[in-house]
Amino acid sequence: MPYPELMLKPMRQELTVAGFHELKTVEDVDAWDGHRNATGLLVINSVCGCAAGMARPGVLLALDNSEAKPAYLGTVFAGQDQEATARARGLFPQVPPSSPSMALFKDGELVFFLPRHRIEGRTAEQVADDLQDAFTEHCG
Amino acid sequence: MGTFHQGKHELHGITVVVDTHGEEIYVGRCDDILEDRVLLLDVDVHRDGVDGTSKDEYVKKASQWGVFKKHDRLVVDRSQVASIRRLGKV
Asked: Which of A70, A103, A107, B69 has the CB geometry, 3.0–4.6 Å to A41, for a possible disulfide?
């Protein structure tokens, strides 16, 4: 069941103010260049505690601290924008769905994936370290 | 650090690997661990050797990508449980 949009607004804004393009519809996902060209980071956002405490702060920290960054930043909201999330997950059908999670694409290929179980129980700094390593390897 | 729902086990909300003394091994999100049972959500189960995959090989793959759930909710009898580990620390 979707959550009240008012409740989600700050969770969405935490990423959009940092430059993430919010993909709320199937059409938005299809139009996003991040999974086709250059490098793109897709964050699958969620309402859970590990999204608030580790995932969103971790990705923001990684983008702040990394010289190499993805060219495109996109986000879908799992449990809320369900059709868009399903479409986005269809970009990497071999990967079990989890949220929050993060997918890094390069030239149309999934090159890095950070599933929920690699986010929960860790610190934002540890999540950021994993992302920065991936940015350095693939976005330099 | 898990999520903070009062009265639940410290692994509440965390994805765990529950190995058993038998052939089954489970990966799912821990709801609670009680004296007599383990409650799991969004659970996959693997049997040792099925599809030529050992328990260790299954856990290794699960730790990289996660699992496709087979059950929304599952209860494992504590007497069957050999170990409970965080998937993220495997």
From this structure: A70
| pLDDT-flagged residues of chain B (< 70) | 1-5
A50 is catalytic: yes
Please give the helix or strand (H or E) that residue A22 lies within, else none. Answer: strand A21-22
Which of A8, A41, A50, A55 is the catalytic position? A50
pTM: 0.91
Q: What are phi and psi of A39, to 5 degrees?
A: -125, 145
> What are chain B's domains?
15-89 (2.30.30.100)
Compute the Cα dihedral for B2, B58, B69, A25 and give only its sign. Answer: positive
Size of interface A-B (CB pairs under 8 A): 47
Residue spans per domain, chain A: 23-139
Which CATH number describes the domain made up of A23-139?
3.40.30.10
* ipTM of the complex, rounded to two decimals: 0.85
